[in-house]
């Protein structure tokens, strides 16, 4: 016999499989793809893009497990205004990323970083050290990790509430959150890798392609961020009127 709140093994397997598939789909949400596109445009290879995707997924999964897990374990209730505020952080982040690309600030930072690496190589009179390559990867991945954390904050409550309505076993719910996070990591790595291929081809054929794509993705991110900010702030009532929040 099954103990109370115990999920049958076959049902649990189906639940976890569903969580992984939904995690794969979740990474392709418009705000996720727009944000990551602004970061990938500055990468030179598919491998570097995969690293960015992995960092985004890790940040998203960590936040999901922490915030979503707390909701599942302790029954925390997210007030509408707090939920909208978390979603507003995504809009602000998209605006900042868009401005970052439009103004060329990203290019200047990359150029400064490249000059610093060249200076280090000249002083050392040797090729790039393992530590230097690892440090560069961490710097690029750190931005992507932060983006993933912000997205995770905005989506954790919705996912946790969805799980609670269908799964009443705490361990199964936490397992679902973990598998969902693994799905988002795999999916975002795939998305960023696919985005990097045509960008790399264009950059090899046209000298100005990278700059044009960076400006275009910056404009898209800025416009989408402003749209989200307007919807959350005024339509949903975060800034004016009563807050109306439907987790999604």
Describe the structure.
This protein has 248 residues and is mostly helical. Helices cover 81% and strands 0% of the residues. It has one domain (11-235). The chain has helices spanning 9-26, 30-40, 46-74, 80-102, 105-124, 130-166, 170-205, 209-235. α2 (30-40) crosses α7 (170-205). Mean pLDDT is 80; it is low at 117-127.
The computed structural class is mainly alpha
Largest sheet: none
Task: Give the uncertain stretches in residue-range form.
Answer: 117-127
Count the E strands. 0
Order of helices and strands: HHHHHHHH
N- to C-terminal separation?
Answer: 36 Å
Strand content: under 5%
Could you list some keywords that capture this structure?
248 residues; mainly alpha; 0% strand
């Amino acid at each position: 016999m099954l103990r109370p709140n115990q999920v049958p093994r076959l049902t649990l397997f189906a639940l976890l499989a569903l969580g992984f598939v939904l995690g794969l789909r979740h990474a392709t949400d418009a705000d996720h793809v727009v944000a990551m596109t602004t970061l990938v445009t500055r990468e030179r290879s598919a491998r570097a893009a995969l690293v960015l995707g992995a960092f985004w997924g890790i940040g998203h999964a960590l936040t999901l497990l922490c915030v979503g897990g707390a909701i599942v374990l302790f029954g925390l209730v997210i007030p509408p205004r707090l939920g909208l505020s978390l979603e507003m952080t995504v809009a602000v982040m998209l605006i900042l990323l868009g401005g970052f690309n439009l103004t060329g600030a990203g290019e200047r930072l990359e150029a400064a970083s490249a000059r610093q690496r060249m200076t280090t190589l000249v002083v050392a009179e040797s090729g790039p050290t393992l530590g230097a390559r690892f440090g560069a990867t961490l710097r690029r991945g750190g931005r992507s990790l932060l983006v993933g954390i912000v997205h995770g904050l905005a989506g954790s409550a919705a996912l946790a509430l969805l799980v609670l309505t269908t799964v009443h076993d705490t361990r199964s719910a936490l397992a679902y959150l973990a598998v969902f996070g693994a799905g988002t990591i795999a999916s975002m790595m795939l998305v960023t890798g696919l985005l990097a291929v045509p960008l790399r081809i264009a950059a090899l054929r046209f000298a100005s392609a990278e700059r044009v794509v960076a400006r275009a993705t910056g404009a898209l991110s800025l416009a989408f961020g402003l749209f989200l900010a307007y919807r959350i702030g005024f339509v949903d009532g975060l800034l004016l009127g009563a807050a109306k929040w439907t987790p999604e």
